Amino acid sequence: MNDKLIIIGASGHGKVIADIAVKNGYHDIVFLDDNETIKTCAGYPVVGKTSDAISLYGDKIVAIGDARIRKEIQSKLSNVVTLIHPQAMISRRVEIGMGSVVMAGAVINSDTSIGKGVIVNTGSSIDHDCWIGDFSHISVGAHVAGTVSIGNSSWIGAGATVINNVNICGECMIGAGTVVINNIEESGTYIGVPARRIEK
């Protein structure tokens, strides 16, 4: 671990990651962002653009909510770290991939695998024997029951619930408060109780 952390994305999400970084022992924190009007974020300086990340020295993490952009940027970087809030509760039998972040109050139970670049947001829970694909996002207060598989680059919205033994394919957006009770085999946007696919 370096003392310096470079956070790509000067956003609200980046602010939360900066707080977690401090709790993980980082003292020298800077941001990168392509919006040149942003000069600071959470009291830390914005020192350049996203493209500068490759040449800068330090540990790095991508703080961008859009899964496609997060994947594109992270794939070009070295020294990518995983950050876990000390008040998250994680089983010793959990695997968490490079570039993922686990927020305060999150719970991840035994024999679950979390992919690369995943966001496990504040107060969410993922129960036993789950598989969460790369660059997915388990939003604030979402709950994933046991033995669930969620494909790459999917978004489980705030307060959504996924019951046990369900598979969700990649590139799905599950709306806030939605309840998933059946397998989802077609990418798209799903809302409601129970979840139903909607056309954009």
Can you give a write-up of this model?
Helices cover 10% and strands 32% of the residues. It starts with a strand and ends with a strand. With 200 residues, the protein is mainly β. The chain folds into two domains: 4-74, Rossmann fold (3-Layer(aba) Sandwich), CATH 3.40.50; 83-194, UDP N-Acetylglucosamine Acyltransferase, domain 1, CATH 2.160.10.10. It is globular, with a radius of gyration of 17 Å. It contains two helices and 24 strands. An eight-stranded mixed β-sheet has the order 6-9-12-15-18-21-23-24, covered by helices on one side. A six-stranded parallel β-sheet has the order 7-10-13-16-19-22, with no helix packed on it. It has a five-stranded mixed β-sheet with strand order 3-4-2-1-5. The protein has helices at 12-23, 67-74, and strands at 4-8, 28-32, 40-41, 44-48, 59-62, 83-84, 89-90, 95-96, 101-102, 107-108, 113-114, 119-120, 125-126, 131-132, 137-138, 143-144, 149-150, 155-156, 161-162, 167-168, 172-174, 179-180, 188-191, 196-198. Strand 1 (4-8), helix 1 (12-23) and strand 2 (28-32) form a beta-alpha-beta unit.
